[in-house]
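Bumping my old thread because nobody answered last time. Still need a sequence for this structure:
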């Protein structure tokens, strides 16, 4: 698995979590010669809490049932 994205997410009460998106790839060189194909995507926190994606901006921390939303950042 490879970390492909990391972002900050926040509950409605202001509690923040770092969410890490990881992606598993399958090597298909032996099958059709096209290289790696994306397979399983998973989300978790750095301390190992598993996370479900509700939609691309909304997630649920499974253990606590908290709903978090991606924090939009601006770059100046």
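Sorry it took so long. Here it is:
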């Amino acid at each position: 698995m490879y970390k492909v994205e990391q972002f900050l997410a926040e509950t409605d009460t202001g509690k923040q979590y770092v969410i890490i998106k990881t992606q598993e790839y399958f090597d298909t060189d032996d099958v059709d010669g096209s290289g790696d194909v994306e397979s399983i995507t998973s989300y978790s926190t750095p301390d190992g809490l598993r996370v479900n994606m509700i939609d691309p901006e909304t997630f649920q921390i499974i253990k606590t049932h908290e709903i978090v939303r991606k924090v939009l950042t601006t770059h100046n």
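The first strand starts at residue 2 and ends at 10. Let me know if any region looks off to you.
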